[in-house]
Every structure is written in structure tokens, then in C-alpha cells.
Amino acid sequence: MFLSTAVLQYTAAAASDRGRKRPTNEDAFGFSVEDGVYLVCDGMGGAAAGEIASSIAVDEMLRLLTRRSEGDSRAASMPHLAEAAIDAANEAIFSRSQRNYKLNGMGTTLVGLLAEERRVWVLNIGDSRCYRLRNRRLEQITLDHSLVEEQVRLGRMTRSEALRSPLRNVITRALGTQSRITPDIFELEASPGDLFLLCSDGLTRELTDQLIESVLGTDLPLDGLCARLVEAAKKAGGNDNITCILVRASS
Known about the structure:
The chain is of the alpha+beta class. The chain has seven helices and eleven strands.
């Protein structure tokens, strides 16, 4: 099978909004197109704890994944670099919560995308998601670490039951809530025209995959698409903070 060796270029845009019901925004995001690092986190915890946890996660991950030396072989060791950065972010959040009882139990979801030419790695902890739009078709890359989604995957709950369940907010894996955490890591090959969406559940709780697919198929620049997704989620209810990053691959 012939595989193109053309080098891909990436462009990105992001938007974040506290929504219509929450007094503050506990989501955090960050990215470096130059280093191929894109991150979205959705914090949880009382008072400002969620905001602190998500900010620590983004700052620590960016710090560790963008400071490699020029001689680093990124593609060969990217999963190891990602796991080391996640371990460091987890430890930073966990130790901070242990030192301050007001922050006890704080944590955050994490969804990240790391790009090295045609190779892409997607990292996931919690229920923030990564999607890929290819040839106008949307595909969810990540698997939610949530109680109801795990029940659906086991066949113990239907999709409609999951949407109505009072336990739909319970996540089974979060960064910083325990001393050790294991992420999901997916390795993909990107193609020219691929559009990746990283988002918090404030977007996916309000918008169906079909609606997201429709919006992303619109002929708008990336920042316009981000704004349209956020506005659609707010119009649909805006019950939570809403954050998205769009990353486009082109030749």
C-alpha cells in the first residue's frame, strides 16, 4: 500500500465560554502549533478548585511538552513524553490538594492532541472528547471515562437511558484526584483536510454529533467555526462551561 510522505502543516483556533448557567469558567485550554501540542481540561471541585486544577494541568503539560531540546526524537518517544507529562501534572494537582484542605478532591479531565507531521497522538482522561472530521464525516476518537458511558459500552444501559440518568455527570477517571492515573492514548495517521475537535462536555452535552458534524462542514475559518459551536451550545441551554479547540491538517 502506498502512503504519502507529504509533510502536513497544522493550524488551530480555540474558544471558551462560561455558558449561561455557571458563574465562572473552570475549563482551561492551551496550545502551541509550533510544538504540535493542543490541550483542553474541564476542572471539578468546590469553590475555585476546578479552575485551579484545570489551569495547573494545562500549564504543566505545556511546560513539559514544549521545552524539548532540538535533538529530541519526538515521534519515537511521544507516548512516553506524554505519559511523563501527565504523571507530572497529576502529581502537581494531587499534592496541591493535599496541602490545602479547601482544594481536597479537586481534579480535571484532560483531552490532548500531539502532532508530529503525519502522526497524531490523542490523550484522554475523563469525559472531554476528541473528534476527527474526515471527508465531512465525524468520528469520535476518545472513549468517555464516565459511569453511564461505561455502562452503555457493556450493554447494561441504552443510549437514551444514559442521557436521562441522574448519574451522567459521574466520571470514573480524572487527573489529580489520586496519586496515580492512567490515560488512554490513541495513535492515528492524519491526512490533508482532517479537522480535529477537542472539547469539554459543555459542548457535547448540548449538541448531538450530527449537529457538530453539520457545523464543522460549514465553510468558515477555524475561529468562526469555534465561535459557531460555542454559540450553538449556549443556544441549546449553555448549562456548563464550553471550550473547544479546532486543529486542521493541510499539505
